[in-house]
């Protein structure tokens, strides 16, 4: 098994892309050995949904696409980042505004911490940002060979 596996997809900043991002990450993680019915798989799908939704809704049309990067380092650390080209970092909204929306990053932060992970936001060289999570990987990962067969 390789020390590092990566996958990436770039999608249009459109509400339909949220489901596509979630499915993409779910398929990649299944390929890497995470059972689709694992509790952490549901958590990752929810986190990806929230981050992709933010990339679509809060870039105010200034980011025509967003990219989802997935990496597994040394079968120990799962990293997922969502990058858009809008420079504004996410911020917590006042409680009064959060009644109908504005809780996405709170949810992401809480879920990430619950699984012993971390959340970061960093600028890109191009002037946008990447919102990323890191979670401990708790299942033996599989790699895919050139012939498409999975190795244990």
UniProtKB/TrEMBL annotation:
One of its GO terms (molecular function) is ATP binding. Keywords: ATP-binding, Kinase, Nucleotide-binding, Serine/threonine-protein kinase, Transferase. Residues 11-131 form the Histidine kinase/HSP90-like ATPase domain. CDD domains: HATPase_RsbW-like. InterPro entries: Anti-sigma-factor_SerPK, HATPase_C_sf, HATPase_dom. The keyword ATP-binding applies. This is ATP-binding protein. The lineage of its organism: Bacteria, Bacillati, Actinomycetota, Actinomycetes, Kitasatosporales.
